[in-house]
Structure formats: C-alpha cells, structure tokens
Specification:
alpha+beta; 2 domains; 6-stranded mixed sheet; 171 residues; OB fold (Dihydrolipoamide Acetyltransferase, E2P); single chain
C-alpha cells in the first residue's frame, strides 16, 4: 500500500497563480487574434508560428491555473487543520535546501528554499507524508531532531510552528 502525500499550499499563492495565468491567456489570445486578423499568404509561416506560440501559452496558462486551484484547496485544508487539528509528533523524513537563482533585468538573485518532509499517522491509522517550507532558523534546529510537533486532522497534517518555537527557542 502506497502512503498518501500532501503539500501545504497557500490560498494567496493559488490566487496569484490564477491571476498570472489569466494574464497569460489574455496575451496569448491577443497574439492569436493579431495573427488571424492580419493574415497574409506571403507571411503565412510567421502567422502560423504566432498561432502555435499563442496555443502553447494557453496550454501552459491553463496548467498553471489548475495548480493554482490545487494550491487554494490545499491552503484551505491547511487552515482548517491549524484551527481544528490535534497535536501529535511526526517523524522527519527529509530536510532539503534548494538553491534558487533568478534573473531580473540583468540582476541575479540567489536564495535558498528550506523544505521539511515528515511522516505521520492520520486519524484512520494510515501512514502519510507531508512537506512544507520552513525558515532557515527552524531548519537549523530541525537538523538536530528526529520528531517534530504537528497538527493532524483527518488525513492531513501540518508542521506546528508555534509549538516548535515554544519548545526550542523560548528560554
């Protein structure tokens, strides 16, 4: 039996993804309409290329918005778990650091994304795993531990930051 895997999403992140995908669809439609409106047999290859690029943009935008909706649903479920969940302990499966490099207007930005992946038993007794981003300060402390405080509700669980900080950073 394969264990279920969940990610902690955010409602705001999902809405941002959907807005970006709507803008991309609008741009793609404008590109396609311009290609069709100014159709000229002599420039047929260029117009076909514009239509293909516009179609690809639409496909990626729809995919991006589907992930946005998924993030919103995960975010709502995570909020529900944080409000109604009961306390338990989860076993750390993996701690990863991912280096991200962004290029914006000639400037290069590099930063790290710290991810915690933990396993837990849901309310039905099934083994599940979940992952979410953590801060560098929490990541350093997690490297020393095997169990983390979590909140569980149904088959979902989230990392309990409040309890973790109370246990490890309050003196």
């Amino acid at each position: 039996m394969e264990r279920k895997s969940f990610e902690r999403g955010t409602v705001v992140g999902g809405v941002v993804r959907i807005v970006i995908s709507v803008v991309a669809v609008v741009v793609a439609v404008i590109v396609i309409l311009n290609a069709i409106r100014t159709w000229d047999p002599e420039e047929m290859a260029g117009k076909i290329f514009m239509c293909v690029i516009g179609g690809i943009m639409v496909i990626f935008a729809v995919t991006f918005s589907v992930y946005g909706v998924q993030m919103i649903l995960n975010g709502k479920k995570s909020l529900e778990v944080s409000r109604k969940g009961h306390e338990e302990r989860g076993r750390i499966l993996d701690l990863t650091i991912t280096e991200v490099t962004e290029h914006n207007n000639g400037a290069v930005s590099r930063y790290n994304v710290y991810t915690l992946k933990f396993e837990y038993t849901d309310d039905s007794g099934n083994l599940c795993e979940s992952s979410e981003q953590v801060s560098p300060k929490i990541y350093k402390k997690l490297e020393e531990l095997q169990l983390v405080p979590i909140l569980v509700l149904g088959e979902r669980a989230i990392f309990d930051r409040k309890k973790f900080e109370q246990e490890n950073f309050m003196e």
